[in-house]
Design a protein that fits this description.
Length: about 45
């Protein structure tokens, strides 16, 4: 997915624990899990 180290680390943890990534970082949009913005996560 061409993520930098900190994004890749967060992605790996989310994948391992079946978590949703909540972030403003558009890099996660290129991944299978995707992401939610903080606003989307609070709805």
């Amino acid at each position: 997915y061409h993520l930098d180290f900190d994004d890749a680390y967060q992605y790996a943890v989310a994948e391992k624990h079946d978590l949703t990534i909540v972030s403003f970082d558009h890099d996660f949009d290129r991944t299978e899990r995707g992401r939610k913005t903080p606003k989307e996560a609070t709805l």
